[in-house]
Amino acid sequence: MRLTILGGGGFRVPLVYGALLGDRHDRRVDELVLHDVDAGRLGVIERVLRQMAAGREDAPTVTATTSLDEALEGTDFVFSAIRVGGLEGRTCDERVALDLGVLGQETTGPGGLAYGLRTLPVALDIASRVQRLAPDAWFINFTNPAGMITQAMQTVLGDRVMGICDSPLGLGRRAAHALGLPGDATRFGYSGLNHCGWLQTLVHDGVDVLPTLLDRPDLLLTTEEGRLFGPEWLQTIGAIPNEYLYYYYFTREAVAGIRGSAETRGEYLLRSQADFYRAVGDSPDRAHELWVRTRRERDETYMAEARSEGEERDAADVAGGGYEGVALALMAAIARNERAAMLLNVRNGTTLPGLPADAVVEVPCVVDASGPQPLSAVPLTGHPLGLVQQVKAVESLAIRAAQEGSEALALQAFALHPLVDSVVTARLLLAGYRERIPSLDAVFR
Ligand code: G6P
Ligand code: MN
After folding, report:
1. pTM of the shown model
2. Is the C-beta atom of 272 inside 6 A of ligand 1?
3. ipTM of the complex
4. Of 51, 55, 305, 417, which one is least surrounded by beta carbons within 10 A?
């Protein structure tokens, strides 16, 4: 089986290759094709993979190309983790918003909208190439904002494209572990949108044990979410939110935290990434070792704005299963027709009442050779439903804005986002992003 990774020069690609190397099944990926628009970064990552494969006769073959069509033609699976505008773009997503006093973050709030707007035309172009060159391929989208991008790509590829994220599985597992239960023996009643969902039930042996966990502040505090939101807030809302909900529930503190740090996440990653690619250039033989070290530091500093100074995030916690595990499990379930339950971003249909049928939602699914099917989900009611409806309306406006090249629709998207507090701010955001990010400006020309 062949897997094509778009964004193949990206820093997380060795995680995926590591997962492939660990797969001993006879029906597994034995051919990996990396595609990237940046030949230099592609070469560096290829080198890391070669060092990982050294001495392993059964290692999947690796080829790298800067030709998108060549990478896609006849492939079985596509895994997309591209970053249109690069990390420079990410820093602009953050700074333009922060300078206006609103949240500047990779996927949530106006920063995520800016990121989405410039990514949509590229994602739609990729979708039509896949349709032409690999019509039977399954497309696994990790490119953020994953819900919005997956929804747009479904207009071309239908249900063959699904979105993945590591955060809901991580949340479910952390909650199960806090109660001393193995993650795979519990059913996660998680529903919402990507980076905007809630664990509302945790079923073990037919019993919902989430209330037991919510009653125990000491156990809640052993989880990332318990520390992030505080046990009292989790008890108040009666659910455990995805960690990205921090930006909604604690907007003011999040904005102050990011503005108060010396650099944003994007700025930190830009620096750490430049150091890494440069260091590998200087010492090519140490590529893998340098990658391991850089990765550890990146994991430990993840979401630093949400933690008090000196408090480090457990690297194992970020990595726990990780997105490469989700991607591999998904491919295995499809290729081997092994039914597996997973939390995925798929077409809503009638799964979550109150949302449009074509909205992409993040819900429990069962996956087999015919692809993912949403299972019956815990419905959203009250404030989660209201928030999700508003955010989805904004995402749908952004998709139409990109499809039609419409400034008016883009302005509406910014203005109606729950984390943008004025139409005046929305105008300034759109103008600021267009001025600083050429690929975003190009959407309207
Ligand atoms: C998690 C999220 C991803 C997000 C990433 C950011 O894995 O699920 O959607 O892109 O964190 O991590 P970074 O190290 O790039 O800040
Ligand atoms: Mn994610």
Report:
1. 0.97
2. no
3. 0.99
4. 55
